[in-house]
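Marked as duplicate of an earlier ticket. Keeping the data here for the record.
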Amino acid sequence: MRKITKSGIQRRVTAARRMIGDRIAGRTIADGGAGFPAAYDRYLERNEGAHFVGFPSKWRVDFPPFEKPAAIGVHLHVYYADLVGEICEQLAQIPVPFDLIVTDASGTSVTADDLAAAGAKNVRVLEVENHGRDIWPLIQVVNAGYLEPYDLIFKIHTKKSAWREEHATLAGSGNEWKESFYRDLLDNSENITEIINEFVTNPAVGVITSNGSMAGAEHWGSDEEIFAHLLLRLQLSYNREDLCFPSGSIYWIRGFVLQGLRSLRLDAADFESESGQIDGTTAHAVERIIGHLAIEAGYSMLERNQVDADSLPSVDSLAEQLANPQWRARCVSFYLPQFHPFAENNAWWGKGFTEWTNVSKARPVYRGHNQPLLPSEFGFYDLRLDEIREQQTALAKQFGVHAFMYYYYWFSGKKLMEMPIERLVASDIDQPFCIMWANENWTRRWDGDTKNVLIAQEYDKVPAEQFIEDVMPLLKDERYLRVDGAAVLAVYRIAQIPNYAEVIEHWRRRAREAGVGELHLMSVDVGANFDGLNQSYLEAGIQGALAFAPHNHEYVHIPHDGLGVDRRFRGNILSYQGSLRDGLKKMTALPESDFPGAMVAFDNTARRQWEPDLWYGSNPYTFRRWLRACVEAVAHRDEQHRVVIVNAWNEWAEAAVLEPTQRWGRTYLQATRAALI
């Protein structure tokens, strides 16, 4: 294999990151019926109306998750059982606790006793068919959620690669290649410590593989078409000259890069039957896509000789950092409380209406459009239940979402949808929260406009000064989010408030008098067309602005050619990558007072059906890159001011959802965690 230098790898990664997403592969979508198992049309047909599982359902009962997982996960796929012993000897050199998950396609029934020499904390052996090389077994482990606990994973398989000796461009024998993986990635405790330390100290690193194993565009083989069709599932494009991936399928890797593969919704039918293929299969395409997705997520990839080995910490210190990673910023996610019935909605829309009514009736507007977007773990929940808040809180904490910013609806003294937050305050649920006053008209089109108004903001009826009195009990709660001891209070369209500077001063005075203390007042960066203040907010007494993408981000329209758009569609299809690029540009000049943010997605088909605004190209990997850029933009600040915003936790009718979905599983939550550590 041609040697790629450190600078060469980094140039390739940089170029790929620059080009990813610049092309929408419409011609490939149009050719979605190609003759291989993972072709896009075949994928859509198999998944239409189907409930995706992606692993043997009996595993749920037979193999529950480890109760106390270690900090590192190892996935070992076994086909050649005679190599298990030597691999276990190599794994025994890992100096920190790890778990060993084995997929066994050998037909000889590898047992836990056979693996005891590895010294793993927890061991699991899963018998699988010899199907999809080592890749489909890995995907099943991913789909089952077994890799979820691990921020760092070592992937290995029983490698022989006898065909290598006859390969035209690859040097050496299969055994020599296998030994190079052992030597570079395992071999001894000090070597492994250096590799693990690189991941711990350099959050930009996503993959470390053996020397000479990083491959480029000369190794597309017959896999490019399959690769392109798989990327369509994530609405991603690529530049073929910038292919960069860890060949050989043995490497140390960030957990999220593998966990995110759940979003491809790969199943057994996507993989060819085994017949000794050495190229041109879904498994080979996925091997290549690993590098592409690592880059898309914002990671770099290294060969072993690029790892710095200076000033290594003790093994105990390294184990502690792995087991207890620190959040690099406080993540605050918008939270919609409209998932329960209330009188006004019953009157406006019909008895029993909630946001779920909109969500469930959505239909696709182009081929492969992910509508309706449906919940998985929590189901169609009702926020009258404290049980739901408890589950949401536990999940948020696990993945680094520090606080929920509730949309607060107050119309001239009348509150709507206040029940969920008031129930939270009355409970003992340990959920940090704050509020954003959504001070816009409530309309039938859900757009805050002045037409089709159901209930309006009428500041001449009840002055805005009164707002602070109604929310005072919330601000006094000990769980309320604070910055430098001041309660964070955001206002959506603050310039819409008459005499807002005087109103702000009144709020501050009343908060002090009532015992709340100081307020940290934030405007929402929605742009001038939404009455945003832009840079003048400081003069008005506002202390900063928080991002609310896609508001005030560039809207890049995407041609409909090749997308299979329904003839009834009258909306806008916009580029997620385009808004991301604009967001990254804005962060280069981010005021110290502002909180940057990323959006999961935006697609309001559920509310407008044939006239929506929807962003094409949103996926967990790109989202991770966006959110990570937000984290890096505030990294230099003191701890209190390292705050990033996510749109949103549960904006289901706008597809801005961190919560688990049938389409994405937990992958957006995993992306969030990966961006924050």
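See parent ticket for discussion. Residues 1-31 have pLDDT under 50 and may be disordered.
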